[in-house]
Design the sequence.
């Protein structure tokens, strides 16, 4: 069980890296045999010809991955691996979660995960894999790695990583290392009043909690994953509590209560410049300039109009007022 737990933790720490799984802080690695179901096995084999293994630094652990019953990927074929993973890809998430939950034993679950990790978008894989780990009876003791440790570039300004790598690789163990400062106001100017709450909105702990909450209460998946008592009530309660704490923080910073975004066709007065990178395609998230208006989105992978969002909102409000949902 300990060896299996090490393998499962390693898969959480190396998104998008098949066969070789980094583990631990020593810089050494957990090495696993390449399974027959890898999508790019032929390409990998040209690089790793020695007994179908990849040797990276020192081989601390070695485990044979069983390819028994490993099917074709159920959900990753229609999602480009380098695209930014979006959790609204419900079909992909549902397929992967169902595949992981249907594994009859722990060994088969790990084998299926190895087959999937090379085919599915890394963000979608991490989401579906973590959901399965949180809900399978035989993985209850496996800790789920914090999302900020899996995709740190989604939480910290890129220049901080450059300085950290320099301190780690150039300065080394000489004892002359210095701490790396993460600028607090890199997403907007101090002249913007709303920037006073950047420390709360961009808090790594708050955002990690929100990610983990949706692992426990996912929107899609098999019945045993989504069918939970008081799920809707707890969804409302959790978000209500975060918003209540946010308003308290605003009062402490001499700001008024947050205003609802009930009109999607007016200008948004505050500008915002994330400057963080997507972990899958190394592209920055787009900025929002001051007084920008929302517009219809028309892309190759889908189209969403403002009128669609307004219609969805009105349907939710109508269902709340009526006390039931009409299909």
Sequence:
């Amino acid at each position: 069980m300990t060896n299996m737990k090490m393998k499962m933790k390693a898969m959480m720490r190396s998104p998008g890296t098949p066969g070789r799984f980094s583990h631990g802080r020593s810089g050494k690695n957990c090495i696993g045999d390449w399974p027959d179901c890898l999508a790019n096995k032929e390409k990998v084999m040209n690089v790793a010809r020695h007994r179908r293994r990849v040797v990276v630094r020192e081989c601390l652990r070695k485990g044979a991955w069983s390819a028994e019953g490993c099917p074709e990927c159920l959900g990753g074929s229609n999602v480009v691996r380098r695209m930014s993973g979006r959790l609204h890809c419900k079909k992909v998430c549902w397929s992967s979660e169902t595949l992981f939950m249907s594994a009859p034993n722990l060994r088969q679950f790990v084998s299926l995960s190895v087959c999937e990790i090379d085919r599915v978008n890394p963000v979608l894989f991490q989401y579906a894999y973590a959901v399965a780990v949180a809900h399978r009876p035989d993985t209850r003791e496996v800790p789920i790695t914090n999302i900020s440790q899996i995709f740190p570039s989604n939480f910290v300004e890129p220049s901080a990583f450059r300085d950290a790598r320099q301190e780690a690789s150039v300065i080394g163990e000489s004892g002359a290392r210095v701490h790396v400062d993460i600028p607090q106001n890199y997403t907007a100017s101090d002249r913007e009043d709303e920037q006073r709450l950047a420390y709360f909105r961009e808090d790594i702990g708050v955002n990690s909690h929100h990610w983990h909450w949706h692992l426990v209460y996912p929107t899609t998946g098999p019945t045993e994953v989504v069918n939970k008592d008081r799920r809707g009530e707890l969804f409302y309660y959790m978000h209500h509590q975060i918003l209540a704490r946010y308003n308290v923080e605003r009062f402490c910073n001499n700001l008024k209560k947050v205003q609802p975004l009930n009109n999607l066709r007016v200008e948004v007065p505050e500008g915002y410049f994330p400057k963080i990178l997507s972990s899958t395609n190394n592209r920055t998230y787009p900025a929002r300039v001051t007084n920008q208006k929302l517009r219809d989105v028309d892309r190759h992978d889908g189209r969403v109009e403002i009128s669609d969002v307004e219609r969805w909102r009105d349907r939710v409000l109508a269902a709340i007022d009526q006390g039931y949902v009409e299909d």
About this structure: The longest helix spans residues 231-252. Confidence is low (pLDDT under 50) at residues 19-29, 47-78. The two ends are 46 Å apart (CA to CA). The beta strands are 20-22, 29-32, 59-63, 297-299, 302-304.
